[in-house]
Design a protein that fits this description.
Strand order of the largest sheet: 13-12-11-10-29
Largest sheet: 5 strands, antiparallel
Number of helices: 1
Radius of gyration: 21 Å
CATH architecture: 7 Propeller
Helix content: under 10%
CATH superfamily: YVTN repeat-like/Quinoprotein amine dehydrogenase
Strand content: over 45%
């Protein structure tokens, strides 16, 4: 009788374990593909106007900014006459859209509703990544062979131009120390900028790692995340000591990365055709939780915490038009399409609404 009870208990334990495993949600679930039709070549960065439910996509080779209605899942409009757009940034507080050009080095400010051009700044060629700091109301513009221009978003006035040792890629802000981290692949380092002194004050050498393009921060845990292409890795640094504390092998050609503080996941989109999801088990403990197959060249994305959604830019292939693939994050209880009529009031001057596009 005791042996029979023991066998039943073991069977029950196995069943409960299997049921628990089955109930575990995927970190990201593909829920929609928004078809964009024919768009030539590379798709670059994205930004979002949450209030109006508009997603903006820089179509570099097509020389357009694609405007996507995420509520109804369709291509809404396009902005033309932009010379190889790369970076794109929406500033909710001022209702302005900022676009950088890879060919002529321009940085254009548009009205966020009408898309009318407000003003244009000209920098070196290859104006690229953008970052908005709502606390100072400055826009940081990466450009040329090693420049970060600082522009006042309210007065639309240039403030300063910070020199680096190579073309800047992703930016992130350490608000506790008023420091900005900037990926500089050519110099094989992460530049550290004092935003009060408006100059580079330190750097983090990558020690043999190359191709550091995307970046994200865990501000609470004081951890800096980057992805490198050689060797293809997700790498973690202590934000205070600058020491490397962890790394995980990932897919090649990573271009965008986001930290989901609520779920403790890091989402990394890569041109190899995957989204790698890294699970943060502790500030110094990480593992690959999922490797989601996407499409070759789909390297740029945007995670929107307020919607619990990740938007992936998928370039045109022989057998498929360009598209935005929409992923829902685990545990998201509401639709990833915003209900604009019922949108809560948001403080767009809160630092969490800074962007890195």
């Amino acid at each position: 009788m005791i042996k029979k009870i023991s066998v039943l208990c073991m069977a029950a334990a196995v069943f409960l374990s299997a049921a628990s495993y089955a109930q575990e949600e995927e970190p990201l679930k593909l829920v929609q593909k928004i078809q964009l039709g024919h768009i030539n070549g590379q798709l670059d960065h994205l930004t979002i106007d949450i209030k109006r439910g508009r997603l903006f996509l820089a179509a570099t080779v097509n020389h357009t900014i694609e405007v996507i209605d995420i509520k109804n899942g369709k291509r809404l409009n396009k902005m033309t006459g932009i010379n190889a757009p790369q970076g794109v940034l929406y500033i909710p507080y001022y209702d302005r859209l900022v676009v950088t050009s890879g060919n002529d080095g321009s940085c254009k400010f548009y009205d966020g509703n009408t898309y009318n051009l407000i003003t244009t700044f000209h920098f070196d060629e290859n104006a690229d990544n953008l970052f908005y700091d709502p606390s100072s109301e400055y826009v940081y513009v990466g450009h040329g062979y090693g420049g970060v221009a600082v522009v006042d978003a309210e007065r639309l006035w240039p403030i300063e131009d910070i020199s680096l040792w190579g073309h800047p890629e992703a930016f992130q802000m350490d608000y506790d120390k008023n420091m900005m981290f900037v990926n500089v692949p050519h110099a094989e380092e992460i530049s550290v900028i004092d935003i009060m002194m408006v100059r580079e004050v330190d750097s983090i050498p990558l020690k043999g790692m190359k191709g550091n393009y995307p970046m994200a921060l865990d501000e609470t845990g004081r951890r800096l995340f980057i992805a490198v292409s050689s060797p293809p890795s997700f790498v973690v640094f202590d934000m205070d000591s600058y020491k490397q504390v962890a790394s995980v092998t990932i897919s090649n050609d990573a271009d965008d990365m986001f930290y989901d503080n609520d779920r403790k996941y890091i989402y990394i989109s890569s041109g190899e055709g995957y989204i790698d999801v890294i699970k943060q088990n502790g500030v110094d403990s990480y593992e690959l939780a999922a490797k989601l197959e996407t499409s070759p060249g789909a390297r740029t994305s945007l995670f929107v915490p307020e919607l619990g959604a990740l938007y992936l830019a998928v370039p045109e292939q022989k057998d498929q038009p360009a598209a935005i693939w929409v992923y829902e994050a685990a545990g998201q209880k509401e639709s990833v399409s915003p209900d604009l009529a019922g949108s809560p009031a948001i403080d767009f001057k809160d630092p969490k609404f800074s962007d890195n596009r």
